[in-house]
């Protein structure tokens, strides 16, 4: 008697082929050298031995995926909001029979939720003031506390898993205004011109400085080539005719933007980490270096006028609006107020604010602002690599004495990520900060809210977001990432 033959259906044969194909893919991924280079990365002695390798691996996979998605989406020609809904869709989106909701810039100009339940978590929270507190008495006590000089802190990660409601119009963006992606290195610092709405510049880790115009059509105006190592910081002169830049190559360079030429080189003995033009007397340049020094240079001659020494590497700085004070942060998390004579350039230390963190972390952002509704006067923002955002009120009568008003603890950073005030938005209510993150998103925070501090975020980068800058008028926000891409976001018009 003949043995019965077993016949496989076409579907079973197809499933078998898919299984074999998946096995081959797993073998290929396990032999991938990038996989081993990420997983076997040595960790510092003071950290979790498994943390850095796994984190680098996850960031590499996330960045690669986002870049491919964005590259595919460029062929479609639709707006950013549609792209955001596209990347937030669930895996089984094709099988979901949910009516589509249009979210084009031509509608309300706000972030519209996608059909995905996940994307609803990405929407920004509604603007509730201190009424979020449990009882009216607590709310009144908190409002009275804010009207005085008391401070409170808030702990939050970069993401908030709680469901959120629609975005506040002040934080609504209609999409990407333009993208500059010709740079192949990390864009370390990005700024708009002084009181300018369309002049943008950014420095990169390959030593280049790029000057752009974001008016339609956007264009690259000048490539400033001269630094041999990372551009750590730069600043525009008051008339936007010159740029002064600092670099890891131990030099400070002054550039004529219109001609695209370096007109002066000031050589140092250590890496130059931050630089600012004097706001009143543009003949003075203040620069901080890795030798723990703050130097004041003469713009015309390049000579050092005066200097003062602090306790750590000077990693960030900013002037007050009068030019009589310099606020700087060092590599140990301390913040200094330094008095400066606007006529002679002479420096003298006045105050030091010690870091409250046990692990001393470098300051990546120091930004001064002339007025805040919360402080009823000038304020200072400080951001450190361990994720600490600190908001100080400044006493000009006491030579820059700082009082901590509120603070926010975010996830620690590996890169030197920067943050910025949202001045015009903060005049409505609250105190709002925008910052980059290593999960490739741009986050908005309200420092006055003890809970639900994150109020919005922008998605579109494929790498960790390093730099943040507002233009004059705050209708455009520029962000730069680790992959060399600069995105200029366009805010929705509000009544």
Question: How do the helices and strands line up, and which of them pair or pack?
Answer:
Elements: H1 10-30, H2 33-39, H3 51-73, H4 80-87, H5 117-122, H6 136-147, E1 152-155, E2 173-180, E3 187-192, E4 199-204, E5 208-213, E6 219-225, E7 231-236, E8 242-247, E9 251-256, E10 261-267, E11 272-277, E12 284-289, E13 293-298, E14 304-309, E15 314-319, E16 325-330, E17 335-340, E18 347-353, E19 363-372, E20 377-384, E21 388-395, E22 401-409, E23 419-421, H7 423-426, E24 432-436, E25 441-446, E26 454-459, E27 465-470, E28 476-481, E29 486-491
Parallel strand pairs: 1-22
Antiparallel strand pairs: 2-29, 3-4, 4-5, 5-6, 7-8, 8-9, 9-10, 11-12, 12-13, 13-14, 15-16, 16-17, 17-18, 19-20, 20-21, 21-22, 23-24, 24-25, 25-26, 27-28, 28-29
Mean pLDDT: 75
Distance between the termini: 89 Å
Strand content: 35-45%
Number of helices: 7
Oligomer: single chain
The shape, in one word, is globular
The side-by-side strand order for the widest beta sheet comes to 1-22-21-20-19
Q: Radius of gyration in whole Å, from Cα?
A: 25 Å
